[in-house]
Amino acid sequence: MPILRVHDSPAALAPEAWNRLLDASAQPTPFMRHEYLQALHDSGSAVAGTGWQPSFLSVWDDGHLLAACPAYLKSHSYGEYVFDWAWAEAYQRHGLSYYPKLLVAVPFTPVPGSRLLAVDDEARAALAQGLRALARETDASSLHVLFGDEADQAALAAAGCMARAGVQFHWTAGGDADFTAFLARLHRDKRKKIQQEQRRVREAGVSFEAREGPAITLQDWDYFYRCYQQTYREHHSRPYLTRDFFARMASEMPGHWLMFTAMREGRRVAASLIALDPARRAAFGRYWGATEHIPNLHFDACYYQPLAWCIAHGYQRFEGGAQGEHKMARGLMPTPTASSHWLAHPAFADAVNDFLAREGQAMAGYIDELHDHAPYKAAQAGS
Predict the structure, then answer these.
(1) What is the DSSP string of 12-25?
(2) Structure confidence by residue, pLDDT tens digits, 262-297
(3) How far is CA 260 from CA 30, 303, 319, 327, in A?
(4) Where are the beta strands (DSSP E) in 56-150?
(5) Which residues of 77-106 are buried (b: 16+ CB within 10 A; e: fewer)?
(6) pLDDT digits (tens, 9 = 90+) for 14-51
C-alpha cells in the first residue's frame, strides 16, 4: 500500500531520486531539478517567511520513491503568473478565508513542464489524490497546480480538479541558417521594425557580450543582480529572488545559464539572463534590467540577442515568459498553457467552474485570432 509523506524542505528528498523521476517525465525542465528548488529554499527566496511554506508531497512503496511534487502553502498569490486575485477578493467579500491555499508550482517561474513527477500513471494518480487530501488536512481553501503537462492535467482532472487555459509566446526553430534568414521569413513590416530597433541600439553605441555557464564571472552576476533589483524598483516592488539564489545557481547549475551584457563606452548598461536546457535544446527568457535608459534596448537584450544565439547554437525552442502579445512581433507564437484547480467550497467551486468554461472558450478564440495575425509570411506561418 503506497504511503504519502509531507516534507517541509526539498532537502528531505534525495536529489538523485527526485531528478531520476524528473528525467523520466514527459516534459522536464531545469527549474524542476532538485538543485533549483533547493536553492530557492536555502537562499530564503521561497520559504514560510516569504509566504511560501514548503509542503512537498511524496508517494512511497517499500522504501522506494514513486512520485513527488513541489507543493507550498501560500499566504498570498504573488509570484505565480496564473492570476486568482479575483477569487481571493470574492472569498473576502463573503467573509471567507482564501489563504492559505495549496500550490504546486515552481516559485516565480511560469515555465510549462511536468509538475507531478511519477514512475507511472498509477503513482501520479495517487499523488493527485494525495494533494486533495493534503489541502483538506491543512484547511486550505483550494489546490492549484500551475503550468503542468498533459499527464498532470489528466491525473488532476480524475481527482476532481478544474482546468484553466492560458497562453504564452514561444519561438520554435524554422531551419534558419542565421538571424538574417529568420528575419527574411517575417512580414516586411515586422522585419523592418526589428531592424530599425536594432539599428537604434547600435547607433546608441551599444554592443553585447554573451557568456555561458562557468564563463559568467562573479562581477557579471553582481552587475546582473543590480539590474534585476532595478527592474523591480522601477515597478515599486521588491525582488522575489535573493543574491544568494543566483550564487547557488552559478555554483550548482552553471551549465544552465546564458547572460547577455550590454556595453557602451566600456561600461555595462544592461543585462539579460537566459536559462538553458542543453539536453533538449531549449532556452527560457528569465530576467533583465538596465542601469541606463536606452530606447529599444530591452527588445534587443531579451529577444533579438537570445534568438540569434539560439539559431547559431542549434536550439529548437525559446520561451519568452508569461504574457505579452508584443512578443508575436518578434517571432514568438502563441502557445497554450494549462493549470488545474480545486476549491473546497462547493458554491465557489461551481461559480469558478462556470467562469473557467467561459474563459476557456474566450481563450481558444483569442489564440485563433492571434494565429490569424502571425508575423511570418503565409507559406511559413507554421514554421
Answers:
(1) GS-HHHHHHHHHTS
(2) 999 999 999 999 999 999 999 999 999 999 999 999
(3) 19, 11, 16, 19
(4) 56-61, 64-69, 71-74, 101-104, 117-118, 142-146
(5) bbbbbbebeebbeebeeeeeebbbbbbbbb
(6) 999 999 999 999 999 999 999 999 999 999 999 999 99
